[in-house]
C-alpha cells in the first residue's frame, strides 16, 4: 500500500455525475478524485451504480449531468480521454485467431503505434504480466488467469494515466488472485498511474488499496483512505465464537454483563455470538477484556474473537445497509 | 485507423470465419447449379441467354446475401463475443471502426465474382449474352454489395444479439428478393420508363431493378443507353444506405444495441 501524498496530481476528477435509465436513477451525483500512483477501491453492492460509473468514466456511456476529466482532459473530448486510460472490463472476449503478441500489437496500432513498435511494446508487456512464454500461443488457448493478465497488458498498451480494472480477480484461485493483485500494485507504483479497482472481494481491496469509494443506490456513502472509511463505522460490536454446545450458556452469561446492550447469534456465522455494547462502553478500552473474562470465569472455551467494524467488510455491510454513523 | 480494423476483420472472416465458409458453400452450390444447366436435358431446353441470366442472377444475388450476412455479424457478433467494448475503448473513432468493418464486409463480393465468372463463360457457349453478363453482373454486384453489407451493419448496430441481427437481415433480404422474382419479367418489350404499378415497384426495389436490368440486357440484348432507368435504383440505393450508415448510425455506435443520440462535440 502506498502512503497518502497530497502533492500528487489528480489524474481523475468526477463532479456530480448523474445517469438515469428511464425512471431508475443509476447514479445520483458521483463526485470523487483519484491521484497519480494511488489505488482506489470502487465498491458497492450489485446495482449500486459501479458499472455505470465505470462506463461513463471510460467514455463508453455519456452522463446525463455532471462532468469529469482525466489528466486534465474534459469528458467533452472522449477520444482524447481514451488515449489516457486503460480498461480491463469485467467480461471481455478475446479473438479466436490471434496469438498473444498479435493481440497486443493490434491494440498498440489502434493507439497510433507502428506495427514494429507495437510488437516490441507487446513483448515488453507480456513479460511484465508473466506471459512472455505464451506470446505465440493463440489467446483462445489461454487459461482464465492468463486471459486476465493479457487483458491487463492490453489496458497498459497506451501507457495510461488512469487504469480501470473491473473485477480482475474474479474466477481466479487464491494464488492467482494474490499474483494479480501484486501486479496491480506494481502498476500503480512503477507507472505512477491512478488505478481504480472494482471488486466484490473486500479483503483484497483492503489489502491493496490506498483509497476507497463505497457506492449504494447510485450515491457515495463513504469515501477516503481505507483507514478513514473503516473509522466511520460503529465500533461497539464484537463477535465471539464458542463451541456449539456452549452457545446458550455463553449468551446467558454475556447478557448479564451491565454494559452489554444485546446478545444474539451472528447471522450466517454458525457458532458465533454477536455482542452489542452500550454507546458509553465503546469508549472503554477494557470492556472487551471484561466480556472475555466473563466467559473464561464460566469456563466456556473461546474459539475466536473479533471486534466488528474493524474490517472493510463490516464497513461495507453497515454502510450499504443504511447503517452509516 | 480504419485500415487496422479492416485488416483484422478481414483476417477474422477469412481465417475460419463466416466469409470463408459461406464462399465455400456458394462455390459448391453454384457448381451444382451450373452442372444442372449444362447436363440436364430438360433445363437444356432453356435458351442459352436464359441460362446465362439465371446463373448471373444466382451469382450476384447470393453474393449480395453473403455480404449482408457478414455485415449482420459485424457488430452484434462482437457484442456477443464481448470483444466490442475493447474496440470502443480505443481512441479509434466510431466512424473509422464502422468503415473498417464495412470494407471487410464487402470483401466476399470480389471473391464471389471471381468464382462465378468461369461458370458464366462455360454456360454461355460463346453467345453474345456473355458480353452483357460480364458488363452488368460485375457492375450491379459492385454497386449493390456495399448496400447489402451496409444494411446488414445497420441491423447489426441496432441489435444486441446476433440471432436477431441475422433474422432481421434475412427478413429484409427476402422482402426485397421475393417480389423481384415475380414481377413482369415475361415481357419481351423494351421499356425505358416504368409503365405500370408492377414496373414501379420493380424500379423502386434495388433487386427488382437489377433483375430487370440483367433480363433486358442479357436476354433481350437491349442497348446500354436504353437501360438507364433500371440502373437508377442500384445507383441511389447504396448512397442512401451508406449515407445513413456513415453519417448517422456509425458515429453513434455504442456498446449496447441501438444508436446513441448524437450531439455536437468538438473532437
Number of helices of chain B: 12
Task: Identify the most extensive interface between protein chains.
Answer: A-B, 30 and 28 residues
Global geometry of chain B: globular
Low-confidence stretches of chain A: 1-5
**What percentage of residues of chain B falls in helices of 4 or more residues?**
over 70%
Q: What value does the average pLDDT of chain A take?
A: 86
Tally of helical segments of chain A = 11
How do the strands of the widest beta sheet of chain A line up side by side?
6-7-8-3-9-10
Strand content of chain A: 25-35%
- Count of β-strands of chain B: 0
* Pattern of helices and strands of chain B: HHHHHHHHHHHH
Gyration radius from CA atoms of chain B, angstroms? 20 Å
Given helix and strand content, the structural type of chain A is: alpha/beta
Describe the main β-sheet of chain B briefly.
Answer: none
Terminal CA distance of chain A reads 27 Å
Poorly predicted regions of chain B are none
Global shape of chain A: elongated
Question: Which oligomerization state do the chains in this entry correspond to?
Answer: heterodimer
Strand percentage of chain B, roughly?
Answer: under 5%
Amino acid at each position: 500500500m502506498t502512503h497518502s501524498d497530497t502533492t500528487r496530481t489528480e489524474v481523475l476528477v468526477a463532479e456530480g455525475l448523474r445517469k438515469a435509465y428511464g425512471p431508475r436513477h443509476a447514479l445520483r451525483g458521483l463526485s470523487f478524485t483519484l491521484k497519480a500512483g494511488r489505488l482506489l477501491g470502487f465498491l458497492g453492492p450489485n446495482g449500486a451504480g459501479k458499472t455505470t460509473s465505470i462506463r461513463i468514466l471510460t467514455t463508453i456511456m455519456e452522463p446525463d449531468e455532471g462532468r469529469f476529466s482525466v489528466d486534465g482532459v474534459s469528458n467533452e473530448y472522449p477520444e482524447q480521454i481514451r488515449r489516457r486510460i486503460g480498461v480491463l472490463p469485467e467480461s471481455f472476449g478475446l479473438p479466436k485467431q490471434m496469438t498473444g503478441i498479435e493481440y497486443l500489437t493490434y491494440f498498440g496500432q489502434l493507439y497510433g503505434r507502428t506495427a514494429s513498435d507495437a510488437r516490441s511494446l507487446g513483448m515488453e508487456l507480456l513479460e511484465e504480466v508473466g506471459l512472455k512464454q505464451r506470446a505465440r500461443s493463440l489467446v483462445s488457448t489461454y487459461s482464465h488467469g492468463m486471459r486476465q493478465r493479457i487483458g491487463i497488458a492490453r489496458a497498459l498498451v497506451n501507457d495510461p494515466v488512469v487504469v480501470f480494472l473491473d473485477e480482475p480477480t474474479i474466477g481466479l484461485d487464491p494464488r492467482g488472485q494474490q499474483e494479480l493483485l501484486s501486479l496491480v500494485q506494481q502498476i500503480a507504483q512503477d507507472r505512477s498511474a491512478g488505478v481504480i479497482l472494482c471488486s466484490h472481494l473486500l479483503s483484497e481491496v483492503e489489502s491493496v488499496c490506498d483509497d476507497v469509494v463505497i457506492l449504494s443506490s447510485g450515491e457515495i456513502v463513504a469515501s477516503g483512505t481505507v483507514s478513514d472509511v473503516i473509522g466511520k463505522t460503529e465500533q461497539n460490536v464484537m463477535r465471539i465464537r464458542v463451541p456449539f454446545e456452549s452457545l446458550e450458556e455463553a449468551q446467558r452469561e454475556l447478557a448479564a454483563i451491565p454494559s452489554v446492550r444485546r446478545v444474539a447469534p451472528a447471522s450466517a456465522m454458525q457458532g458465533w455470538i454477536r455482542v452489542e455494547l452500550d454507546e458509553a462502553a465503546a469508549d472503554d478500552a477494557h470492556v472487551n477484556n471484561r466480556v472475555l473474562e466473563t466467559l473464561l470465569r464460566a469456563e466456556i472455551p473461546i474459539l475466536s474473537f473479533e471486534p466488528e467494524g474493524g474490517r472493510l467488510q463490516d464497513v461495507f455491510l453497515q454502510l450499504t445497509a443504511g447503517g452509516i454513523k | 485507423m480504419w485500415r487496422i480494423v479492416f485488416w483484422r476483420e478481414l483476417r477474422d472472416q477469412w481465417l475460419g470465419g463466416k466469409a470463408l465458409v459461406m464462399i465455400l458453400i456458394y462455390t459448391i452450390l453454384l457448381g451444382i447449379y451450373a452442372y444442372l444447366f449444362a447436363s440436364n436435358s430438360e433445363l437444356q431446353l432453356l435458351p442459352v441467354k436464359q441460362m446465362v441470366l439465371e446463373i448471373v442472377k444466382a451469382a450476384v444475388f447470393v453474393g449480395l446475401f453473403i455480404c449482408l450476412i457478414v455485415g449482420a455479424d459485424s457488430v452484434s457478433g462482437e457484442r456477443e463475443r464481448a470483444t466490442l467494448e475493447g474496440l470502443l475503448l480505443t481512441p479509434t473513432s466510431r466512424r473509422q471502426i464502422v468503415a473498417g468493418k464495412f470494407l471487410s464486409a464487402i470483401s466476399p463480393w470480389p471473391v464471389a465474382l471471381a468464382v462465378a465468372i468461369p461458370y458464366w463463360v462455360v454456360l454461355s457457349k460463346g453467345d453474345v449474352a456473355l458480353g452483357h453478363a460480364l458488363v452488368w453482373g460485375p457492375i450491379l454486384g459492385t454497386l449493390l454489395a456495399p448496400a447489402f453489407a451496409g444494411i446488414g451493419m445497420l441491423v447489426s448496430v441496432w441489435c444486441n444479439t446476433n440471432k436477431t441481427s441475422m433474422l432481421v437481415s434475412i427478413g429484409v433480404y427476402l422482402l426485397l428478393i421475393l417480389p423481384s422474382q415475380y414481377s413482369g419479367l415475361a415481357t419481351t418489350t423494351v421499356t425505358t420508363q416504368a409503365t405500370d404499378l408492377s414496373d414501379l415497384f420493380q424500379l423502386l426495389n434495388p433487386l427488382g431493378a437489377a433483375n430487370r436490368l440483367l433480363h433486358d440486357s442479357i436476354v433481350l440484348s437491349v442497348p446500354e443507353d436504353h437501360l438507364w432507368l433500371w440502373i437508377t435504383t442500384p445507383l441511389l440505393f447504396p448512397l442512401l444506405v451508406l449515407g445513413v450508415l456513415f453519417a448517422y448510425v456509425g458515429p453513434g455506435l455504442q456498446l449496447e444495441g441501438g444508436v446513441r443520440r448524437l450531439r455536437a462535440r468538438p473532437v
